[in-house]
Write a structure and sequence with these properties.
Elements (H helix, E strand, L loop, with lengths): L4 H24 L12 H4 L1 H13 L8 E5 L7 E6 L6 E7 L19 E3 L2 E3 L3 H21 L5 E7 L9 H7 L1 H4 L4 E8 L7 E6 L1 E10 L5 E2 L9 H12 L18 H14 L20 H9 L3 E8 L10 E2 L2 E10 L5 H13 L7 E6 L6 E2 L5 H14 L5 E5 L4 H9 L4 E8 L11 E3 H21 L1
Parallel strand pairs: 3-6, 3-7, 7-17, 8-16
Antiparallel strand pairs: 1-2, 2-6, 4-5, 5-18, 8-15, 9-13, 9-14, 10-12, 11-13
C-alpha cells in the first residue's frame, strides 16, 4: 500500500498543532543544558525532566508494539531507546538529541532561552529545533504510516542527552546496545537544517570540530599597567599564537595539514545550491547594516562554510567587563577556540597538531596550555541509492511542492561519523528544520512549525519507500 501524501500531511499537521507544539512548549521551559555547560546536570535534574516529558508523550503513541525505554548506565547521561517492530527483519535507525546549548545573551524583549513563545509560524526558545522535536516528529511519521495501514521496517530511535557536548556517551551506548539496535540499512538524522523553508534539504557532509581552551599566563598576579612596554600583554601573546593558525587578514587557516582536497561532486553541489539561492546565500545570517561576508562569490562562501577549516573564538576568561577594566596588566588570558575541520579530516590528529602548534616555543617564555575537549569527527555521505534519491525527490515534491536540495553544512554531528564507520553499507538521510533566521545556539532561536510538519511527512514517505524497496 502506498503512502497518501495528503493524508500524511494532514495527520502530521494535526499532531503538531494539537500535541507536539504543546509538549515542545513545555520542553523549551526546561533548561536542560548539555553536561559541558552544566556539570551538575544530574543534581539539577533538568535533563531527567526532559527525558520524562518526552518519554511520557512517546508512550501514548498508537504504534503497534512500541517499546520506550530509558537507558542510563555507569553514571552516564541517559539515552532514550525506542523500537517500533514493524514488518520483517530490516532496520531503520532514527536519531535525535534532547540536550541544549546554554542561554546566550541578546534575546529580544519578550523572548528568552527558557521562555516559549509562539509568534505565527515560529516557536521561539532554546532547543525545540535543535533538536527536541526529533522524538515527536519521528514517532509521528511512523504513526502516520500505521494509521494508513502502510507497512514499514523495524524502526529504532536513539535520543541522546550529550550531543552538544560531543556525544561522548553515545559510542558506549551503541556498543552496549548493538544487539538491540541491529544493523540499520537506513539512518534518518533530524539534527540538521535547511537553507530555505520551501523544500526538503538533505545534508551531504558535516564538518569535524576541535574545541579547546588556550590559556596564556605571564604574571602570578595583576600589576599596574605602567609596566607595559616591559611586561608583554598576555592578550598580545595569545594573538601571536592564533596567527600561527589563522591569517587574520583573510581568515584562512595557515597550516596545510588542516585542509583536504574538496571532492568534485561536492563542488558541483555547491554550485547548484548557489544557483538555487542566488543572492539569498546570506539570508540566514543576522548581519548588522553595512556588514559583508568574508567572501563575495556564493560558491566559495558555501565551500568555505562546509569544506574548509575555520576558527571561531567562542569564549574568554581573564577579561573583566569594560566598566571594570582598570589600569592593570592582567596575569592571564584564556580563549575558547572552536576550529571547524573539513569533513574527511582526522579530528584526533588535528587536535594533536593544534596543541603542538599553540604550545611549542611560546613567546617570551609564557606558560601556554591548550586543553582540548573530545574532538568530533566530520562526515561525508555515501552516494544515495536510486530508491532513496527517488524517495527524497518525491517526498519534497509532494510535501513542499519543490524539488529536494542537497548541500553540506558547517556544523558537526559527531554521531554521524561514528555511524558511517560502523555501518558502511547504510544509507543516510540527514535533514532538519533549522533554516533562515532560526539561529541555532544563539539568541532568538526558533522552530518553523510548518517546516516541522512537512519534514515529518517526508520522513514517513522515506521510511515507507525503504520498506517497498526491499
Amino acid at each position: 500500500m502506498s503512502v497518501d501524501a495528503g493524508k500524511t500531511l494532514a495527520f502530521a499537521a494535526r499532531a503538531w498543532e494539537d500535541s507536539i507544539v504543546p509538549r515542545l512548549t513545555e520542553y523549551i521551559a526546561l533548561p536542560a543544558k548539555s553536561p559541558m555547560f552544566d556539570p551538575d546536570w544530574k543534581a539539577h535534574g533538568h535533563i531527567d525532566r526532559a527525558v520524562a516529558l518526552i518519554t511520557a508523550w512517546c508512550r501514548q503513541r498508537a504504534i503497534e508494539g512500541l517499546r520506550v525505554e530509558v537507558v542510563e548506565r555507569d553514571g552516564r547521561t541517559p539515552l532514550i531507546l525506542m523500537e517500533a517492530p514493524g514488518a520483517g527483519d530490516r532496520t531503520v535507525l532514527l536519531y535525535g538529541h534532547l540536550d541544549k546549548q546554554p542561554e546566550m545573551t541578546g534575546w529580544e524583549a519578550g523572548l528568552g532561552p527558557w521562555t516559549p513563545v509562539r509568534r505565527g509560524d515560529n516557536l521561539y526558545g532554546r532547543g525545540a529545533a535543535d533538536d527536541g522535536y526529533a522524538s515527536f516528529a519521528a514517532l509521528t511519521a511512523i504513526e502516520a504510516l500505521e494509521a494508513q495501514g502502510v507497512p514499514h521496517a523495524r524502526c529504532v530511535l536513539l535520543i541522546e542527552a550529550c550531543e552538544e557536548s560531543g556525544s561522548y556517551d553515545l559510542p558506549f551506548y551503541v556498543d552496549a546496545l548493538r544487539d538491540r539496535i541491529g544493523t540499520p540499512e537506513l539512518v534518518v538524522c533530524l539534527d540538521s537544517g535547511c537553507a530555505t523553508y520551501d523544500a526538503l534539504w538533505g545534508t551531504t557532509s558535516l564538518r569535524g570540530i576541535v574545541n579547546g581552551v588556550l590559556t596564556v599566563e605571564l604574571l602570578t598576579e595583576g600589576i599596574h599597567s605602567g609596566a607595559s612596554g616591559v611586561i608583554p600583554s598576555t592578550f598580545r601573546i595569545a594573538r601571536r599564537l592564533l596567527s600561527r593558525l589563522e591569517d587574520e587578514e583573510t581568515g584562512a587557516i595557515r597550516p596545510r595539514e588542516f585542509h583536504v582536497e574538496i571532492p568534485p561532486d561536492r563542488v558541483e553541489q555547491a554550485r547548484a545550491v548557489a544557483a538555487r539561492l542566488g543572492g539569498d546565500v546570506l539570508e540566514r545570517f543576522p548581519l548588522v547594516p553595512g556588514a559583508r561576508a568574508a567572501l563575495a562569490d556564493p560558491v566559495e562562501l558555501l565551500l568555505a562554510n562546509t569544506w574548509r577549516p575555520a576558527l571561531g573564538i567562542t569564549g574568554a576568561a581573564g577579561l573583566p567587563l569594560p566598566r571594570d577594566g582598570g589600569n592593570v596588566l592582567r596575569p592571564f588570558t584564556a580563549l575558547k577556540l572552536s576550529l571547524r575541520l573539513p569533513p574527511t579530516l582526522d579530528a584526533r590528529a588535528a587536535a594533536a597538531r593544534l596543541t603542538a602548534l599553540l604550545e611549542t616555543d611560546p613567546p617570551y617564555g609564557a606558560r601556554v596550555t591548550f586543553a582540548t575537549e573530545h574532538p568530533g569527527g566530520g562526515w561525508n555521505a555515501p552516494p544515495l541509492s536510486p530508491w532513496l534519491a527517488e524517495s527524497v525527490r518525491a517526498a519534497s515534491a509532494s510535501c513542499f511542492g519543490k524539488p529536494a536540495m542537497f548541500m553540506g553544512t558547517g556544523g558537526s554531528i559527531p554521531f554521524m561519523a561514528m555511524l558511517g564507520a560502523r555501518f558502511p553499507k547504510a544509507q543516510f538521510l540527514i535533514t532538519g528544520v533549522l533554516g533562515p533566521g532560526s539561529n541555532a545556539h544563539g539568541p532568538n532561536e526558533f522552530l518553523h512549525v510548518p517546516t516541522g510538519i512537512k519534514v515529518t511527512a517526508c520522513v514517513a514517505r522515506v521510511v515507507a519507500d525503504h520498506y517497498s524497496a526491499g
